[in-house]
Amino acid sequence: NLGAFSHCKALWLENNNLTVIENLEQLAMLTSLYIHHNSIKSFVRDLNGELTSPPLPSVRNLNICHNVLDTLRGIAVTFPNLEKLIVSHNCIVQLEPELKELLQLTVLDISFNKIEADTGEPTPDCFLTHQNLALSNQSELNLFDIVSNLTNLSTFIFNGNPLLKSIQNYRKKLICSNKSLKFVDEHPIFADERRAAEAFGNSGPEAEKKEKLATKLEAENRFNLNMARLDELLQDKRATVDDWSDVRIP
Which of 202, 196, 194 is nearest to 178 (CA)? Predict the structure, then answer.
């Protein structure tokens, strides 16, 4: 009975051994739901796709890590306006295409699950067309297809999944697939890395080396220009000061 809490905006239900998400539809103003460390297995009740909960369009932040989820089926219908989804440390075995429908997502953490390589060949209509970015299986295609469609995504965390072992140039592929990404797994994406990754994706390893060299030279030129400007300022100061005995340099 949550009717008395209709103005609740954040709800913590962790460590309660809950098995389903239900009876939250009365919380029309709920924006953040923290339901980690429970025993939730799915967002649907059966193979027919009946949801365990009516849609909760007000929820923007969902932390459902450390449960026993084996699928994300139904998540886009239950939480259509998610901006932050933390679903790490579960038992998810594949990525659901409906994740592409969560267009407002800025943070997606699906690390330490059981997503592994599919034996099927990837479909040919793939956005990563260059040979250096070729995809080896359908699971890999699903991953990059989802990431490329989430145009507001800035943080993506996927480490700890078996699929990573079969992906060559994983980080470079991710950077090329989504221009809004700022953070992947344990490291941020700086402008220099993005330039090198996109050069690799467009023209291969040699282009990547050239781009890294160009970036290094640009940094050295900026440093030399700054030092030259500092020297000019010191020279101007020396020219205007007759007695240096009273000048203190901090």
Answer: 194
Query: Cα-flanking dihedrals φ and ψ of residue 85, to 5°?
Result: -125, 120
pTM of the model: 0.83
Tokens 């020219």 belong to residue = 239
Contact status, residue 147 vs residue 177, Cβ threshold 8 Å: yes
d(CA 85, CA 250): 49
Using alpha carbons only, give the angle 37, 83, 86 rounded to the nearest 5 degrees: 25
d(CA 53, CA 74): 10
Other C-beta atoms closer than 10 Å to the C-beta of 45 total 14
Over residues 86-134, the pLDDT tens digits come to 999 999 999 999 999 999 999 999 999 999 987 655 554 444 544 456 6
Distance from C-alpha of 192 to C-alpha of 214, rounded to nearest angstrom: 10
For the stretch 139-181, pLDDT in tens is 888 899 999 999 999 999 999 999 998 888 999 999 999 999 9
Say which amino acid occupies 224: N
| Contact yes or no for 155/132 (Cβ under 8 A) | no
Name the DSSP class of 113: S
Cα gap 110→117, rounded to integer Å:
16
- Element at 184 (helix H, strand E): strand 183-184
| Closest CA relative to residue 180, chosen from 127, 98, 75, 105 | 105
Tokens 């297995």 correspond to: 41
Rounded CA-CA distance 239/242 in Å is: 8
DSSP 83-109: SEEE--SS---S--GGGGG-TT-SEEE
